[in-house]
Amino acid sequence: MKMKHAFIVMALGAVTALPSLAGVSPHETVSVKIGDNNVKITYGRPFSKKPGTDTVRKIWGDLVPWDKAWRLGADQSTTLVCDKGISFGSVAVPAGTYRLYLVPSEKGTSKLAINKTTGIWGIQKDATVDEKNDLARVDVKKAAVDPQVDQLTLSITPGSAPNSGVINIVWEKTKYSVEFTNTP
User: I want to staple 100 with a disulfide (CB 3.0 to 4.6 A). Which of 1, 49, 51, 78 is the partner?
Assistant: First the structure.
């Protein structure tokens, strides 16, 4: 009887702990094979709704400030892994693992940063990064989306040319995208 009682207490404890998980951003890995190159992005997927409420947060220009570095996800830094080199226009990115972050701009050109420092937690609270470790910052295209996307979504889709792909970042009513190609 004591064993049964202990099991019930543990089960009730687990059930009452579930609401505390409501604010946790799930993590996801998206990957695609472009030609003979495996390209993968791992990131945390925050929601537009404030954790534990029905309040929808304004994302761009509020939760994510304009013209400052943003971690491009939640929790651990967003990472890009490519088995072979890729290039964003004239910017070559050798095979390896990189940290990604975004510098969104309301009126100017938004940038995707490819940073050589990996394994860290997001970015600094004051939205600064050690730019000397940026391999590059590349321009991203910004477009409106409708309907609104409630959860940050990153994807990698085939590009417009052979051996090319597109990194897409969609949240709220905005989509950022940048095309890359495999390097020989």
Answer: 78
